[in-house]
Amino acid sequence: MNCIVGLERHCLDLVVAAPIHTYILGAASQETTRFFPSADGCELADNITYLGRRGVFSGASGLQIAYVSGREGRLDPTPAHCFSPEDLHQLVEPLINNNQFRGVDILLTSQWPRGVWQYANSPEVNTKLCGAGSISQLAYKLKPRYHFAAVEGVHYERRPYRNHVVLQENTQHVSRFIALATVNNPEKRKYLYAFNIIPMKSMESSELVKQPQDVTENPYRKMVGENTLSDPTVQEPASQFFFDLGKKQRGGGRGQGGRGRKRPSDGDGQNQGQPWDPDRQSQRPPFDLDGPKQPRRPPQPSGPCWFCLASPQVEKHLVISIGTHCYLALAKGSLTPQHVLVLPIGHYQSVVELSSEVVKELDRYKMAVRTFYKSKGQRCVLFERNYHSQHLQIQAVPVPEDKCTTEDIKEAFMLQAQDQNMQLMEIPEYTDLEQIAPPGTPYFYVELDSGEKLFYRIQRNFPLQFGREVLASESVLNIPERADWRGCKQTPEEEESLSKQLRDDFQPYDFALED
């Protein structure tokens, strides 16, 4: 079936007729309500039909189009140019209560879904103000193959996202979000979208669920679970400190002699994250099918922790860089002189337990380390072992490019896993680890410089030095004698000298010096 979608966000001028059947959404502002005489939809002119405030349009071919006109209503009664929570419930319930429901072919909304850009390319809009949380939940429930919106007046085509959890649910079709610009805009941004679509009900399941190479994680899954784009109530422990890493590190000078300056807790003032709806911070989103969830706090260590930055057990001379939520340190008994750890400042056991703010900075450190290694002609291998460990450690190990290829490194992990009766699985590039390994799941995880990711759900008797053993093997770094960190210990003076050198080398890539 051929479709042309064009969503105009400004008022209708005098229209006599259209050359083809044209269906439009309704008013998105009070000023334009006068052009739409009925909330139930009507014919405005020859071949031009206003669909109504909300509903489902089914074509003769079986194509199913769900639609919601206007903006999210926050007043009671709901203004004519807005939709209410009841509108959304009445749209969703009959569809999802059908046992045969797999999703809709097309979803049309005036507003963008909030957070649609998560895991994907960024749009040219102010993401702090753009979109409605209720539209995000609507898209999550209806699983549209195509979702179109327009009121922001810019063109944005997001990478497709999946509607299932990898390795836990049966494969489902992907969704695509496309925002269209204003008609005849001076920047000549795209305001029409033409495409062919076969109705979902007419497609073979194997064809429907094919996954494109650039598919990402679902941007709404975590939001629907937590009711926020990021949980603003999650805070790091208040007892965090800066340490003297040189004159430029966080304003600390060498004259401080290494004495700590207490870091304000993340709950103070401007460092908190943004709630779901900036205008209604203490309220849940108006369209909430799952109910509110309690905010998560990072667990506290049951005993002394060698990696909590505020802990007296931390060997602070190994610290390379300190950010707001994470820090970088030389690995104890390092495989190579530039083998480092990326760690959260607060006490978290694994990546899947981190709040979104911590994940964001963790990713910045990973990218900085990759860039640092690349400048020296090295590949970056990252791995995490969430097993017999109480504090998250991302190991970052450089491998010289002339030693082996990325494919060689991947094969080394696969073969060594097979030798020990373990099955490492390759997972899609844009997969969210939290969807594969819920908190509390023991696992081993590898990221290669190609973007490829390997995952193993640990059963029992996992070799604690597995990651080091693979990288130290003859096929990679060829330093098998350094596979166990305990055999690579150095004196505190040697460690401090190595840390200082690495701190100086990393300084051009250290974003923490600029923030």
Brief summary:
With 515 residues, this protein is an alpha+beta fold.
Give an account of the 3D structure.
A hairpin with a 7-residue loop joins strand 19 (378-386) and strand 20. The strands form six sheets. The protein has an eight-stranded antiparallel beta sheet with strand order 16-17-18-20-19-22-23-21. Strands 4, 5, 8, 9, 10, 11 and 12 form a seven-stranded mixed beta sheet that branches. The protein is elongated and about 85 Å long. Helix 1 (85-96) runs parallel beside helix 2 (133-142). The protein is built from nine helices and 23 strands. It is 18% helix and 21% strand.
* Count of helical stretches: 9
> On the 0-100 scale, what is the average pLDDT?
82
Distance N to C terminus = 51 Å
Low-confidence spans: pLDDT under 50, at least 5 residues?
8-12, 228-295
Q: What fraction strand?
A: 15-25%
Summarize this structure as a short list of keywords or feature phrases:
seven-stranded mixed β-sheet, eight-stranded antiparallel β-sheet, CWF19-like protein 1, Cwf19-like_C_dom-2, HIT-like_sf, 515 residues, Cwf19-like, alpha+beta
Secondary-structure blueprint:
Blueprint: E1 2-5, E2 17-24, E3 42-50, E4 54-58, E5 64-68, E6 71-72, E7 82-83, H1 85-96, E8 106-109, H2 133-142, E9 146-149, E10 156-157, E11 161-162, E12 174-179, E13 193-196, H3 205-208, H4 221-226, E14 240-242, E15 261-263, E16 319-322, E17 326-330, E18 340-344, H5 356-375, E19 378-386, E20 394-400, H6 406-419, E21 425-427, H7 433-436, E22 443-447, E23 453-457, H8 466-472, H9 492-506
Parallel strand pairs: 2-3, 5-8, 6-7, 8-9, 9-12
Antiparallel strand pairs: 1-13, 4-5, 10-12, 11-12, 14-15, 16-17, 17-18, 18-20, 19-20, 19-22, 21-23, 22-23
Helix pairs in contact: 1-2
